Amino acid sequence: MSSMRISGMATGIDTENIIKDLMKAERTRVDKFSQNKQLIEWRKDIYHNVNKDFSNFILDVTKELGLKTNTYGSMVKKPASQTWVKKGTSSNTGVAEVSARADAANGNYAVNVHKLASAWNSASNSSISTGDKANIATQFSINDGDTIDFTITTNKGSVTINKTNLSTVTLSDIASEINKANIGVTASYDANTDRFFLQTNDTGTNNTIKITDNSVLSDGMDFLTGNNSKLKLQYKDTMGVFQDIGDGAVYTGGNALLDVGAAVGIEQQSNQFSINGVNYNLKSIGSTTVSVSTDVDGILDKIRLFVEKYNDLVDKIGSKLSEERYRKYPPLTAEQKEAMSEKEIELWEEKAKSGLIQNDSSVKKAMQNVRSGLYEKVVDLDGNPITPNDELFDIGITTGNYKSKGKLEINEDRLRTAITNDPDSVLSLLFQESSITKADSLLTDAEKQQKRAESGLVNRMFDDIVVGMKEVINKSGTGNNTDLYRSVKSNILIDFVTNMGSTSMLDKDMSTLDKQIDREEARLIRLENHYWSKFTAMEKAIQEMNAQSSWMMQQMGSM
């Protein structure tokens, strides 16, 4: 840039506006580059939203159906622990409440509960204070310099309590210190009843507790253990007789004891457990009959929910693929925005963004693969069709007319009949896991074909969506959705990082445009300086001519 710019002083020409107009015409190219860059940024955002829709569909279906996921092979497991496949009922819920998992066998089972699982617990058998409860020294009428020293050991750890300045310690302080140790016991002191309580948190014989008391008290009494202790702790033994806590003795909780059908004398550590796919919550001693049957309504509701979410996905993706493209609405330049209101800008950009992935090959291909996969037969792991339901039509699910863009429709009567007659084949049709468990990148063509044929329709759909997501990621990158994508499939980004080096195709296009914009901006600076130098030179020349003319006029006037 020249050191001085002279603007119209000699000629009266509005040099600045002339050059501005000249540069406005020259900026057309850089504006075009910037507009193309803006289109790429918008297209990337749309791709990211498409992949978010894909991701959320898979995650929502997985969550709503309670499906377990796999790292390799089929993405989800066939329902086993879910409680919407089978229905469990108890004839006497006062004895036991039950629910049935998908892997429970249908039938009726006589259940007799002989004993509930219990925690070990102890409590003071009478009031324990002999004085003011302000601190341990006054509460038990012992010397301030006496020592309270005991250790509680459980299967989860141990804690040692050692106190000497007893006038500064309360019984509640000791209880709090025991609880903070987090060793599976709870201690408490109730001042109203003047009793101390100590118990294990969990039930069953695997939960043990031992108390070792090394306290030294001036009156010769023990603090925690024995029949001459300050806390007077007792527990009830297996015969129901109250006993004093023994120093160094090991105590346990009790197991539940029950009969299930012909299986008698079953012991459980807790009152909540599962046997043969039935979840039990024991409430009291007694008898009940447990019935397990197929939950036809439960299965139908989950399939209906899956279809609804799939149809929502079809709507979202279909609307993006079919959006109208308004090519007469390019991105606005900064100068154009200055001349418009916020509402005008919003409406303009709405048109400008429309249709940016219209009929996009990657997204369209993913949806086409999903649709075709839904109507390919599913074979069992021996290569034979799953009978009697080896394709979607068999269970009453079809696609609507062409206007529905591939949405699914349910004939509930046919679906209910299929579930009632053979629920296992319905679940296999939808959720069967392939015998191929290797990573996708290691599969041969034959293994890919086998995996697809063996995969239930939901697994097949998820695989097709993930393949489509990978193609979209290659185009647009991950944006801020890296964690979301990995929650869909932990290794989903391996191919992208390996093949693209974390730089998407659109990012590369934007990088090229940035370089073109930088070059064009540099050219415009040089050109503007060139214009100014020419106009400045013209002004200087005219100034000199005017000065010479003035001098000559002066000379002629003096003659």
Beta percentage is 15-25%
Q: What class, by secondary structure content?
A: alpha+beta
Strand order of the largest sheet: 1-17-3-13-14
**Percent range for helical residues?**
40-55%
Distance between the termini: 46 Å
Radius of gyration, in Å, reads 41 Å
Total strand segments = 19
Q: Any idea how many domains?
A: 3
Low-confidence residue ranges: none
Largest sheet: 5 strands, antiparallel
Mean pLDDT: 91
Q: What global shape is seen?
A: flat
What's the helix count? 15
Explain what the structure shows.
By secondary structure, this protein is an alpha+beta fold. The protein has 3 domains: 38-79 and 298-506, no CATH class; 86-114 and 260-294, no CATH class; 121-252, no CATH class. It contains 15 helices and 19 strands. It has helices at 15-26, 28-64, 136-139, 171-180, 296-321, 334-338, 342-353, 361-374, 412-421, 423-431, 445-454, 457-476, 482-488, 494-500, 505-557; strands at residues 86-90, 96-100, 107-115, 121-124, 148-154, 157-163, 185-190, 195-200, 208-213, 233-236, 242-244, 250-252, 256-260, 263-268, 272-275, 278-282, 286-294, 397-399, 408-410. The strands form 5 sheets. It has a 5-stranded antiparallel sheet with strand order 1-17-3-13-14. Strands 7-8-4-10-11 form a 5-stranded antiparallel sheet. Strands 6-5-9-12 form a 4-stranded antiparallel sheet, with helices on one face. Strand 18 (397-399) and strand 19 (408-410) form a beta hairpin. Helix 9 (412-421) crosses helix 10.
